Amino acid sequence: MTISDSKPSPLEPQYLQSMWDFSNPVVSCQRFEDFALRAIEAGKPILAALSQTQQARALGLSRLFDQGFALLNAILITHPSPACELAVRLKLERGRLLNSSGDPTLSASEFVHAWDIARSSHLDGLAVDAAHMLGIVLSGQDSKQWNHLAMELAIESDQEDAKKWRGSLLNNMAWTEHDEGNHQQALILFERALEVRLESESLPQIRIARWSIGRCLRSLARFDEALEIQQQLETDPEADGYVHEELGECYHALGFTEKAGPYFAKAHQMLSADPWLITNESSRLQRLKKLSSVE
User: Fold this and answer.
1) Does residue 220 sit in helix, strand or coil?
2) How many Å apart are CA 295 and CA 288, to the nearest integer?
3) pLDDT for 176-186, tens place per residue?
4) Which of 63, 112, 226, 260 could disulfide-pair with 248, CB 3.0 to 4.6 Å?
5) Is residue 79 classed as helix, strand or coil in its secondary structure?
6) Phi, psi (5° rounding) for residue 64?
């Protein structure tokens, strides 16, 4: 859906999240820029600044880090002493930009500040967001501690903005266990994440949850079960390069190398278009090319 296809949103903060299309940060960036302009025209400068923080996040997802930092700095010049929600979002988005641009250590301090401000302001959803980001940028027990703090707040809070984080948190906790080699515990968490996603009826999130279970089953050497899940996902028109990659890996693990090749080729073709993978997972892309029919 393009901006021209979407109906103008009421000029209220709660509509900011509805304008996100995380699969298309360029479109999202334009939406937030347009929304900010409308907010300024309506005499709502704080709302405009809130929209600009999300515009900065979209710039970061497009790897336009300098532009993202410049926008956040401009907001601070206009609002040198931001209060409550704007202060939290400025910290959150600066932290995300720092992490994505290669400085997770410095980003952690921004997320801690965001957590402190959000908790003191009773902005539970934003507090959970900050804690979940700390679970991502930190490692080991520190990561687990922040994930558990985030989950406790998401469960205990009476604010819907906090409760909606449960699926994402379970997913992150599962990947932490998976990356540490605790695959059976990871599977339990991935399955819990799917249960929560099914409650929300969000098809993209349900697909990711099912894919993650399949990926974990492959780590447990339960290749037939993993293959069955990925085959089901392949029938979805939204099947992406990660599904094709897993199909290739499952067939490869089962000894069907000829059948695996075309899937590796398709995965290589699709995933090579991702700038983040090119920068951070070059060896993964090289493996796909080596195991595929790509010359």
Assistant:
1) coil
2) 11
3) 999 999 999 99
4) 260
5) coil
6) -100, 65
In angstroms, rounded to a whole number, what is the distance separating the alpha carbons of residues 195 and 199?
7
CB neighbours (10 Å) of residue 6? 14
With a cut of 80, say whether residue 1 has pLDDT above it: no
**Structure-token pair, residue 139:** 């490692």
Task: Please give the average per-residue pLDDT across 273-281, as a whole number.
Answer: 88
Q: Is the dihedral of CA 94, 96, 97, 98 positive or negative?
A: positive
Distances in Å between the Cα of 245 and the Cα atoms of 162, 193, 254, 264, 281 are 33, 22, 14, 6, 14
DSSP state of 180: T
Locate 247 and state its tokens: 């199909």
Cβ(11)–Cβ(47) under 8 Å? yes
Distance CA 27, CA 40 (A): 20
Task: Name every residue whose Cβ is closer than 8 Å to that of residue 107 and which is 6 or more positions away in sequence.
Answer: 94, 95, 96, 97, 98, 99, 133, 137
Burial class (CB in 10 A: 0-12, 13-18, 19+), 67: middle
Buried b (16+ CB within 10 A) or exposed e, 175-193: bbbbeeeebebbbebbebb
Tell the burial category of 30 from Cβ atoms under 10 Å away from its Cβ (0-12, 13-18, 19+): middle
Q: Which long-range contacts (CB under 8 A, 24 or more apart) does 8-11 make?
A: 8/38, 9/35, 11/35, 11/38, 11/39, 11/42, 11/44, 11/47
CB 11 within 8 A of CB 38: yes
Average pLDDT over residues 6-12: 61
- Positive or negative, the Cα torsion across 244, 258, 214, 182? negative
Going 85 to 91 to 94 to 100, the CA torsion angle's sign is: negative
